[in-house]
UniProtKB/TrEMBL annotation:
GO MF terms, alphabetically ordered: copper ion binding; hydroquinone:oxygen oxidoreductase activity
Protein name per Swiss-Prot or TrEMBL: laccase
Keywords: Apoplast, Copper, Lignin degradation, Metal-binding, Oxidoreductase, Repeat, Secreted, Signal
Main location: secreted
The keyword RNA-binding belongs to this UniProt entry's keyword annotation: no
Lineage of the organism: Eukaryota, Viridiplantae, Streptophyta, Embryophyta, Tracheophyta
Keyword Lipid biosynthesis belongs to the record: no
Organism: Zizania palustris (Northern wild rice)
Length: 577
């Protein structure tokens, strides 16, 4: 019952958690009930109905230990279709539970339900869950806390307390109306009105001082902050005035610890940091600030700052609250909004532990190499239409000039039943069909093609993928998430990737292992992974505006020969399209 005491200690006992005593080698079974329902929420002095899970915003935290079976029954009481993605969970052979709509399942329709079942295998740290359909994840998201197996310590000093800290975005308008309008006009969507920390915008926004996240600490104690960037469209700098942060884990993988005063976290990523409170009462409170990183020329980002407050308990006070509201508040200094050098220097510090207990199993040899261009583009406006994209066109986004079109049935079902004809083709280009100076002067023709084109891999294929950012319609950073796998970030750089010289600089010893990585603005990133998980796996930019424009694709990993190398059969309650 140690996990239950952990829940109580963190004061976030949410959802429905049932423990069944089973064989320790197999872990426990953790059961949750997720009721998707509407809730009236007031932020920035304005109220609106939003989609939530269990009437909570953000939603309930899912707790498990490494090796546990997690069972979540989702019942859709809302008026929208719904699917839930368990972001970063490997889903070994359980792709039916991965969650992206029209990739591994059809959506859960209003009044419907679906039970997600998956085992947490070889992972410990922080992940998260969110809606995976349209822009519904603006309010439908929550943390996943994965503790080590019983009796296994952290590979760093154990904190006194652990606290999820989730960054989000808030629109005063209905986000489904925002994306619908953008798709109709072909222009950029309206940006959010505020960032949030654990759903609260904080004192720097109008009418929001009462809606402020406060972290209350005791002198001398250590706290592990489980940071999650659940924002729809913005990479975020984060800092706490007067305090350092020691990074110990990213995307539920331990890293060699390093200490910073500011960090960068892209949408989809998680970062666990240790915060050690000052040894004695400081006589001040401290802002925790988060603000965007962006190199976008189009201005489609929220250029505001969210603040939380770090408060110290005064040991000399006899008040039951023991917090002084009249103390000075200190502010940290964040990097400039376009400080790409800071981002590059921070990401270069990330290294896997690469120990006997936590090895870095980097593929040393590669069976298949891929080179994907990543960037924006255009679609022509309809005849006699009026569009608000560049030069009267419609915004688009593409990988290797292919803007992905979601099918009307689930890709995994089509693959599993052998009925892919008319649903998808397996001819996604392994490299650009028309090479150009990717980070130099862009081509005159910025139009991209449409298609539902996939890559098919035999089970056990070792893969190297270089993602190359382009300067078409401006050089931007693109955070990319791969479902079903972790990967190793073996190299990255600025300018055009040099296949003759850059691979010699790869780190094949202790590269960081994660599930979401930023493709640098006007640069490239190289990843390697082993295709050891049969199924259909989505890969996409985690900026929702770019996903809406088509910056996504999918991989098919075929079954292996052995029984434990084949995807399981679909559950009987799998939703139908």
């Amino acid at each position: 019952m140690a996990s239950v005491s952990y829940l109580l200690r963190c004061s976030v006992l949410v959802g429905v958690l049932t423990l069944f005593a089973v064989d320790e080698a197999k872990g426990d079974t953790r059961e949750y009930q997720f009721d998707v329902q509407m809730l009236n929420v007031t932020r920035l002095c304005s109220s609106k109905n939003v989609v939530t899970v269990n009437g909570q915003f953000p939603g309930p935290t899912v707790f498990a230990r490494e090796g546990d079976l997690v069972v979540v029954r989702v019942v859709n009481h809302a008026t929208y279709n719904m699917s839930i993605h368990w972001h970063g969970i490997r889903q070994l052979r359980s792709g039916w539970a991965d969650g992206p709509a029209y990739i591994t399942q059809c959506p859960i329709q209003p009044g419907g339900s679906y039970v997600y079942k998956f085992t947490v295998t070889g992972q410990r740290g922080t992940l998260w869950w969110h809606a995976h359909l349209s822009w519904l994840r603006a309010t439908v998201y929550g943390a996943i806390v994965i503790l080590p197996k019983l009796g296994v310590p952290y590979p760093f000093p154990a904190p006194d307390k652990e606290v999820p800290v989730v960054f989000g975005e808030w629109w005063t308008a209905d986000t489904e109306a925002v994306v619908s309008q953008a798709m109709q006009t072909g222009g950029g969507p309206n940006v959010s009105d505020a960032f949030t920390i654990n759903g609260l915008p904080g004192p720097l926004y109008n009418c929001s001082a009462k809606d402020t996240f406060k972290l209350k600490v005791e002198p001398g104690k250590t706290y592990m902050l489980r940071l999650i960037n659940a924002a729809l469209n913005d990479e975020i700098f984060f800092s706490i005035a007067g305090h350092n942060l020691t990074v110990v884990d990213v995307d539920a993988v331990y890293v060699k610890p390093f200490t910073v005063d500011t960090l960068i976290i892209t949408p989809g990523q998680t970062t666990n940091v240790l915060l050690t409170a000052k040894p004695s009462y400081p006589g001040a409170t401290f802002y925790m600030l988060a603000a965007p990183y962006s190199t976008a020329a189009s201005g489609t980002f929220d250029n505001t700052t969210v603040a939380g407050i770090l408060e110290y308990e005064d040991p000399s006070s006899h008040s039951s609250a023991a917090f002084d509201k009249n103390l000075p508040v200190l502010k940290p200094t964040l990097p400039q909004i376009n400080d790409t050098n800071f981002v590059s220097n921070f990401t270069a510090k990330l290294r896997s532990l690469a120990t006997a207990e936590y090895p870095a199993n980097v593929p040393q040899q590669v069976d298949r190499k891929f080179f994907f261009t990543v960037g924006l583009g255009t679609h022509p406006c309809a005849v006699n239409g009026t569009c608000q994209g560049p030069n009267g066109s419609r915004f688009a986004a593409a990988l290797n000039n292919v803007s992905f079109v979601l099918p009307t049935t689930a890709l995994l079902q089509s693959h599993f039943t052998g009925r892919s004809n008319g649903v998808y083709s397996s001819n996604f280009p392994a490299m650009p069909l028309s090479p150009f100076n990717y980070t130099g002067t862009p081509p005159n023709n910025t139009n991209v093609s449409n298609g539902t084109r996939l890559v098919v891999l035999p089970y056990g294929t070792s893969v190297e993928l270089v993602m190359q950012g382009t300067s078409i319609l401006g050089a931007e950073s693109h955070p990319f998430h791969l479902h079903g796998f972790n990967f190793f970030v073996v190299g990255q750089g600025f300018g055009n990737f040099d296949p003759a010289n850059d691979p010699a600089k790869y780190n094949l010893v202790d590269p960081v292992e994660r599930n979401t990585v930023g493709v640098p603005a006007a640069g490239w990133v190289a990843i390697r992974f082993l295709a050891d998980n049969p199924g259909v796996w989505f890969m996409h930019c985690h900026l929702e505006v770019h996903v809406s424009w088509g910056l996504k694709m999918a991989w098919v990993v075929q079954d292996g020969r052995l029984p434990n190398q084949k995807i399981l059969s679909p559950p009987s309650d799998l939703p139908k399209c």
